[in-house]
Amino acid sequence: TDHAVDAASEQARRNAFLPDNTERYYARPPVFVRGWRSHLLDADGRAHLDMVNNVAAIGHSHPRLQAAVTRALGRLNTNSRFLYRDLADLSERILETTRGADGTSPYDSVVLVNSGTEAVDLALRMATIATGRRQVVTHAEGYHGWSTAADAITTSAYDNPHALDSRPSWVTVTDVPNAFRGTHRGEGAGAAYAADLNGVLDGLVDAGTAPAAVIMESILGNSGGVVPAAGYSVAMQEAAHRVGALTIADEVQVGYARTGESFWAFQAEGVTPDVVVCAKAMGNGVPLGAVITRKEISDQLGREGTFFSTTGGSPVACAAGLAVLDVLADEGLQANAKAVGDHLAGRVAELAAQHESIAAVHGRGLYRGIELVTDRDSLTPDAALTAAVCEALLARGVIDQATSERQNVLKVKPPLTLTVEEADSYVDALDEVLSRKWF
Ligand code: PMP
């Protein structure tokens, strides 16, 4: 019956009951019926290379994940108030990933939830309760989730032009530290953005609303996969601590081995956030998120009642989480993310010699953004070209999407199983699409 599926009628069925603003991909999206490693198979039996799926970090339909989840479902799945071993096992394994060169971890507390939004929401609650403060500083061009609190600190303006002037009064927005395009550019940009942040923080202290936390994605996903301006992450940590605020790193997209050099993106930035939130890759599609912090911070939650999430960290979710960590380690996927990601970025940089439209390859490992412009002098974002490239890639069996505030960046965040050959086929397809200008 899979093969009888008709894309137009599937879309009509979906549109009938979803709100009009629900995000979906492509003008005429394919209907997918199977996934395998880095590929998705549509209802017509056509394989697509999946370059955007940072949820399926260990690849689609991994047999070890399937076996672990099936086994757990057949044995025990209950709410997280009961005692079962996988919850502590998974939490300990997550803490292991945060160990530094000296073998110790700055963290000793993990709270498991169901999604990135929940993790962000909980992190905000922890920070406000632990500091006894209400104000939160967030960065422009950021996405942090859809709940009322996570949405309040979401500043992305491309689909909500009022994002910056409609934040609630407990939210303060500071500039996004993008040294490629933004208020400050090139060398010295990190220090200039840090000076701006210090000004924002001083203003809050002077107004009697010193902040509870400063939150940022460790790599700026919604700005196009841009690594923060050099020195900014460290300066941000110092600035936050100077005014008694906690730092929260949103690693929902960029954490979990994806950036290659380190398991967490913040580690490559040389900082130790007070609170780390993650989700997506943790369960490889099984709902699972986490807040990682120090117990002295998470314990404070008790001052405002008990915390409990029915299915957050359920036995099935924990079994999935453990299987994902096993596969990441056993298949060397962090090293693969570094090797294949560097290879891919190097080849795209070579392509830039032939294509004026390629202005930059941002990011680290297998979290990249390829920024497309009309010309490199003006750096005018070319959203129309980016959308056309995605449609043309789809016609060639490659799934890719536009991202960034300006919708002119091609996402590169495939399963970490991506091979050098698959990376090459992506770059070759991109080269062909840009060369032919057939859209
Ligand atoms: N933070 C970031 C950086 C994200 O990209 C997302 C999801 N795109 C979230 C938080 C929210 O995660 P979820 O969709 O799992 O609620």
Automatic annotation (TrEMBL):
Record keywords, A-Z: Aminotransferase, Pyridoxal phosphate, Transferase
Lineage summary: Bacteria, Bacillati, Actinomycetota, Actinomycetes, Propionibacteriales
Residues of the whole record sequence present: 571 to 1009 of 1009
Name of the protein: Aminotransferase class III-fold pyridoxal phosphate-dependent enzyme
UniProt keyword S-adenosyl-L-methionine present: no
GO molecular function, one term: transaminase activity
Coiled-coil parts of chain: none
Family membership noted in the UniProt record: Belongs to the class-III pyridoxal-phosphate-dependent aminotransferase family.
